[in-house]
Amino acid sequence: MAIQHFPLKLASRRMIAPSVGHYVFVRDDGQPLDYIPGQFIQVHFTYADGSATKRSYSLATQHDHAMGPGEAVEIAVSYVPGGAATALFEGLQIGGTLEASGPFGRFCLMPGDTNARYLLIGTGTGVTPYRAMLPELAKLIAQRNVEVVLLFGARTPDELLYGDEFRAFADAHPNFRFVPCFSRELPAAGSPHAHADVRHGYVQNFLAEFGPNAAGDIAYLCGNPNMVDACFEALKAFGLPVPQVRREKYVSSK
Questions:
Q1: Rounded-to-integer distance, Cα 51 and Cα 85, Å
Q2: What's the distance, Cα to Cα, between the start and end of the chain in Å?
Q3: What is the pTM of this model?
Q4: Please, are residues 231 and 121 in contact by the beta-carbon 8 Å criterion?
């Protein structure tokens, strides 16, 4: 899969958390973007002094084929106060363009996997690649009855990115379990997210509940570096070999 440079034109955006925007682009050169769910793109721009820089964003786009010309290119953007990338995205008007390259990365579901269960663990925008994987996970559930547990850490219900989509997917696929872990504030009674699988605390505190097992599990870790490191050590302690733990760390950059 060749890495390409291409222009992206903003089609729409919406806020999905108080400080996270969901941005929908299309390639402005009429070419397709062939990518594997779990990969990311880089957005290129310049600082005020003219020096070049770039930021990485996992693709949130859900698809089960190579993306043709004009198809959506979706990302989640965390706003960092005073950040150069934040200023770029906040100032981008509908129809405006920016330069990007990609796709990059190997944080993907592997065709040769024969595991019985995936443990998907994420915090913040680290959950974005899991949204992109949902169509592929639906196929794996149907084809080989694989089980999936998504442990998603957020501080409050307002910060549960794509929570409604994950909940709906879990309702439609009994083999998919969505476990939101709130470190600060639990959902109000009657909220769609006030259900039996909600936990109060950090995601790493609930790993043991799901009995990670080297014989049947492959784990994915994406998000806050401290969470990734803590879960990685915990999974090794449960006996998972390093190749069965796939990691990607997210660091908010200004």
A1: 13
A2: 30
A3: 0.93
A4: yes
